[in-house]
Amino acid sequence: MLNNSIKFLIENKLVAILLLVLFVCWGIVSTPFNWNTGILPSNPVAVDAIPDIGENQQIVFSKWEGRSPQDIENQITYPLTTTLLGMPGVKTIRSSSMFGFSSIYIIFEENVEFYWTRSRILEKLNSLPSGLLPDGVNPTLGPDATGLGQIYWYTLEGRDKDGNVTGGWDLQELRSIQDYYVKYGLASAGGVSEVASIGGYVQEYQIDVEPEKMRQYGIGLGDVVKAVKESNQDIGVQTLEMNQAEYLVRGLGYVKSIADIENAVVTSKDFVSIRVKDVANVHLGPQTRRGILDKEGAEVVGGVVVARYGANPLEVINNVKEQIVEISSGLPSKILKDGRTSQLTIVPFYDRTELIQETLHTLDEALTLEILITILVIIVMVYNLRASILISGLLPVAVLMVFIAMKLFNVDANIVALSGIAIAIGTMVDVGVILAENMIRHQEDDKLRLNANGEEYTTNEIIYNATSEVSGAILTAVLTTIISFLPVFTMIGAEGKLFRPLAFTKTMALTASLIIALFLIPPIAAFLFRKRNIKKGTAYIVNGLFVILGITAVIYGFWLGLLL
């Protein structure tokens, strides 16, 4: 079957050319190196700097304001942990109880699908027994992201038109703009799981009660809390029909200012209303903080963008940057006392794009130089230009085919995965060298060029005989190398996530080189090695052109030209 396929493609070269064009175009579309694809669409492989070796983890977060870590542990963390232990696929559960909140980390087995685990957790949380948790405690599921999801950090800073820091904004203003404008704008970018605000002061209404006045009026703290809650709501009542028209009546009661809270009635004594301001002081103040965001010694306000699980980090960052450009025009500005205009600006201070681009550039350069050096060695050692073109053409096409496989099997392009291609290049060349040298031997050996009747084989027949003679050996040799890497695919845990991409790309590179060597090189070789009557003068002209090209390359600094 193998030899019949080879023979079919040699006799039908157009099919082989179409396959070659398909692989090249599809590979260019899938390449992670941000090439200009021209008229072709761009659907690159997901790109990151390093593999994500984190565990298959989900987080359940619960808040219970004002409670001690011991209360959180006893009444939230422990009951939730014991309930969640019974879920299918759970490997272990880790928990943390702190002042006012609880965090539970559920680690699943590696083979359990990420979003399936989230649906099971939500199902379990929705079916919790009544009374298991204190009133008002609602456990929430964390963002659908992994430990490497934090891809972009930024701060909000006042800048002048030249980009210099001007200030003029207090931390409460910045945090409010971040929470109610910037956060929602960036959350709408494609691939973003969450935008978390950091730093500054979260504004809130604060009521400081006076115990002595409460004692005098006979009012408890619960009465004040109840009055504040009931004063902040709209109430719908009946309808009125007037002049054959129906009017809907409702009471407007949402709190809009400090005065609204101050005038809320707690109780009445002898037909006199006792309001909140009679027993407490109401003012705006900051929420209790658990940390700050520091930049070069100054406290700032910012946020972190978290990429969704399975999203392309580089693509998400680009989406976020486009969204920043769009929302920047809506950020407020101030005229300072010195006459300068302080325009609020989104300033990045961690952008994984730089790390990703450095990684890709390093590997792009390494692969390019490795391919060029290999081509040079082939030209010198084989000493046949047409054979060198055949062998050298195998490398870039095989690399493009690896990108296609990475896209189809959702393997991210990172420093480990792309290193597998670099490792495989030596073996990939061997396949082409063996095949090309056998073709040359069949062409130059009189015994191999003639059939049993003493007639000379056609070029197609010579190429087919040379290929079929070594096809089985090439297939066996490459499969031996591929099979030797199979144990890597059985690795689990962090080691498996680290090394499986390398084994995959190396295996796909060898498979691609095998496909090209056995099915694409023979038809092209049958075209290149066909007999041509080249006059001696024409040969001198061709050689002269190569010499001129080499000298030109040397003049412009490409020393590879001197060697050629």
Overview of the structural elements:
By secondary structure, the protein is an alpha+beta fold. It has 4 domains: 2-44 and 384-532, Multidrug efflux transporter AcrB transmembrane domain (Multidrug efflux transporter AcrB transmembrane fold); 55-145, Multidrug efflux transporter AcrB pore domain (Alpha-Beta Plaits); 203-286, Multidrug efflux transporter AcrB TolC docking domain, DN and DC subdomains (2-Layer Sandwich); 535-564. Helix content is 52%, strand content 19%. The protein contains 19 helices and 16 strands. Strands 5, 6, 13, 14, 15 and 16 form a 6-stranded antiparallel sheet that branches. Strands 2-3-1-4 form a 4-stranded antiparallel sheet. The protein has a two-stranded antiparallel ribbon with strand order 7-12.
What is the first-to-last residue Cα distance?
Answer: 40 Å
Label the CATH architecture of the largest domain.
Answer: Up-down Bundle
User: How many structurally independent domains?
Assistant: 4
Please tell me what the overall shape is: elongated
In DSSP terms (H or I, runs of 4 or more residues), the helix count works out at 19
CATH topology of the largest domain: Multidrug efflux transporter AcrB transmembrane fold
Sheet with most strands: 6 strands, antiparallel
Helix % is 40-55%
Class derived from helix and strand content: alpha+beta
Q: Tell me, rounded to a whole number, the average pLDDT.
A: 88
Question: Could you state the CATH homologous superfamily of the largest domain?
Answer: Multidrug efflux transporter AcrB transmembrane domain
Classified by CATH, the class of the largest domain is Mainly Alpha
The percentage of residues in β strands lies in 15-25%
Radius of gyration: 36 Å
